[in-house]
Structure formats: C-alpha cells, structure tokens
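Retry 2 of 3 after timeout on previous attempt. Resubmitting structure tokens to design endpoint.
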C-alpha cells in the first residue's frame, strides 16, 4: 500500500507523468468531464478546474466525511481548483486568458451552453487556434435528441447495456439493474480521453498545428461496449437477451456458490481448461464425454455442465476452491468486495491501494494510477486530493495569468470568483 501526502493550495502543477506539459481547462461538473480530466491529471497534465463561486454540486453528493463528499477527493485529485462565474460579464477577461493558456478544454454542459456564453468552438479558436475542445453530452452535439436532458443512467438505458444487466425474463420479474457505479459516465469519460489524446497527436505529432472539436455522447460510449451484439442482429436478426451471471457464448463461464456462501466466478472457457477443471473436480467422465468436447458442444448442455460445477463448488469454502482452481491453471476468483480489494496483496503490490491524507475528509484510500509505465519518473502519481473551493484562485489568476491581486480582490467582493 502506497502513501500519498496532500499538497497545499500553493502546489505547482504536477511535473511527473507522460502528459506533463499538457495544459487542460476543465469546464465540467458531476462525473464524466471530471473523470476524463482526472485521468489526464493522473498522468501529469496540468488541469485547471473551473467551478461556480459556491462550488460544484458534486461536492455535496454521496458519502460525506467531515462534511465533505468523499468522491470529490478522488475525481478532482491532481487538479488546480478555481472559482469563476461563467455567466458574469466581469469574468470574461479571466475566461479568455484561461483559453489562451490551455491546450485542451473539456466540458460536459448541454449542447449550446458554451455558445450562449460566447465560448463555442469557433469562439475558442479565435482566442487560441490550437485549442482542442472535448465535448461530452447525453446525445451529442447534433441529431434530433441533442437538446434532451440526460445522465449516465439514461445513456446506459438507451445504449443497450441496462437491458442486458439482469436475469432472463423467464427466471425473474424484476427490472434490469445498474452496475453499482456510473458506468455510462465513466466509459464515456475514457473515450473522451482517447479523443483528446488523438487530437493532441494530430496537432502536435502529425503536425497540423490546429485544434479539433471532439464530440462524445453518453449513449454512444455505452453502445460501443456491446461487442458482437450489433453484428449478431445485423447478420442473424437475433437480439441478445439478459443472461444473468452466465456468459452467453462460452460454457463454463458462470458464478457458483461456495460452501461458506460466497460466490465464485469460474471461467473454463477453452477446451484444455475445461479438461483441467473436470480433472480437478474428479469428473474424468465429463472430460472424455464427446458431448462436451468443444465449447459449441458444451453450449448445448449448459445446464448439465453448470450443475456439476455448482455441486463441486458447494463442497468447499470459497478461498480453498479459489486456491485449488488457480493452482490448476483455471481462471477463477471470488467476487471481491471493496474490502477484499483493499486487503489483497496483489492490489497492494501493484500500488492500486493508495493511502491519501486528505485535509478535507481525513485519511482515506484512492485507487492507483493506471496504466503503469516502466520508469518511475514517467509514471503518473497522486500529488494531492480534490482541493477546497477556490483553493488555487490566487495561484492561477495572479501567478499564472498575470492579473493583479486588486483584480482578484474585486472579483471576490463581487462574487465573480
């Protein structure tokens, strides 16, 4: 387990990580845009996050510690946090200097909001021809639904994943379930990262020297996850149905209850692995059964195969079954809780569990920075957790952008910041 100490409001931008030197302006709120810029900041980008003077609503969401949201600590780590009333005419000089400073702007307002502020892509390019604008929205910047309101959950529903996250209708009469996280926001944020880095490559490496407008929709991020589901429909007219815990294209690959009531995921997907699994279970008859020789064969006899594995798993405690399965070269794992993750030696050895001293919420844990890079100096890091409201106002407006302290004091009195 690694330990990270907090940085104060005067901390400069991160100087480690492969994206060091990349300057990012975040005009975002809630999940998708902040998650995108968090990934960029984790890898060394200098991210300046703009919030309203009263702070972003995410500061009040979810689990609280010492009166502060714990998700804020994570999603806004490594960022310099400033306040600015984007609607106020007096904020215009600060906005323009921030845009001229930035390489990239990331936003997730409803389509048209930036244009109403006079900050559409054409406006930004007049200020900074090299600017890259990444726009995350529910339905994208074009199309008949572009003005609809949306959140990640709506993107999951329209994108097709919510229909699949449940058990077959003949087994239960319950609605499909969410994954327990804001999956629609999170996956779209990762596509936004890919879009930003693609545009940076084109501008700076391919050498066009000009920026791009990158358009990412929540439902499209989710829809892109559906693997072969669309080709299945396009070629066969088939509509994949909810499968519960089973994988529809491979047997065995399911979840089984152990003797101590825990759940084990066992994936004996390939033919050689299936033979090893049968041997481990003491069922050589299944290994040699011609009806079960290939995955196509086993798909026809799913209930029989899964029933045998369930019977075997029910004879052993989860940890012992997991140990035997992995020793035999069979992919398997207990279904981890977050407590299991935090205690696991492999998570710790890979620096995925980081102790963070957060002055707002107290000592806490953050997930580590991924992906990993080979040299420590090139890796990203957790330099500081999500900062207090306006923590970096003086540093950014005075030291970085060149406004006077009198300017900043006036803005404070007029609640521009």
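Retry 2 succeeded. Sequence:
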């Amino acid at each position: 387990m690694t330990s990270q100490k907090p940085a104060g409001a005067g901390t400069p931008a991160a100087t480690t990580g492969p994206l060091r030197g990349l300057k990012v302006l975040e005009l975002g709120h809630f999940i998708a845009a902040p998650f995108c810029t968090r990934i960029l900041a984790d890898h060394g980008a200098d991210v300046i996050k703009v919030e309203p003077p009263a702070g972003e609503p995410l500061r009040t969401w979810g689990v609280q510690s010492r009166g502060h949201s714990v998700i804020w600590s994570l999603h806004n780590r490594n960022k310099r946090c400033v306040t600015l009333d984007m609607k106020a005419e007096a904020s215009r000089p600060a906005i323009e200097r921030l845009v001229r400073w930035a390489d990239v702007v990331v936003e997730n307002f409803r389509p048209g909001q930036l244009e109403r502020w006079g900050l559409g892509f054409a406006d930004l390019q007049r200020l900074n021809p090299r600017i890259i604008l990444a726009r995350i929205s529910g339905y994208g910047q074009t199309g008949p639904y572009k003005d609809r309101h949306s959140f990640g959950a709506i993107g999951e529903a329209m994108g097709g994943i919510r229909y699949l996250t449940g058990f077959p209708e003949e087994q239960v009469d319950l609605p499909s379930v969410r994954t327990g996280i804001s999956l629609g926001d999170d996956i779209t944020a990762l596509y936004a990262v890919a879009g930003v880095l693609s545009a940076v490559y084109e501008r700076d490496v391919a050498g066009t020297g000009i920026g791009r407008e990158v358009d990412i929709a929540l439902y499209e991020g989710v829809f892109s996850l559906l693997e072969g589901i669309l080709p299945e429909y396009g070629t066969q007219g088939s509509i994949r149905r909810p499968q519960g815990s089973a994988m529809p294209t491979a047997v065995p690959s399911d979840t089984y209850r152990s003797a101590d009531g825990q759940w084990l995921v066992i994936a004996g997907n390939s033919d050689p692995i299936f033979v090893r699994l049968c041997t481990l279970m003491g069922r050589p008859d299944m290994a040699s059964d011609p009806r079960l020789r290939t995955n196509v064969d086993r798909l026809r006899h799913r209930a029989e195969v899964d029933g045998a594995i369930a019977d075997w798993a029910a004879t052993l405690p989860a940890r012992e079954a997991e140990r035997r399965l992995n020793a035999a070269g069979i992919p398997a794992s207990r279904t981890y809780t977050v407590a299991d993750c935090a205690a696991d030696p492999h998570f710790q050895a890979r620096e995925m569990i980081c102790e963070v001293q957060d002055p707002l919420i107290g000592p806490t844990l953050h997930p580590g920075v991924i992906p990993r890079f080979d040299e420590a100096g090139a890796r990203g890091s957790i330099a500081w957790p999500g900062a207090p409201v306006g923590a970096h106002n003086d540093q950014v407006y005075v030291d970085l952008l060149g406004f006077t302290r009198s300017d900043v004091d006036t803005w404070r009195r007029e609640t521009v910041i």
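Attempt log closed. The CA atoms of residues 188 and 221 lie 5 Å apart.
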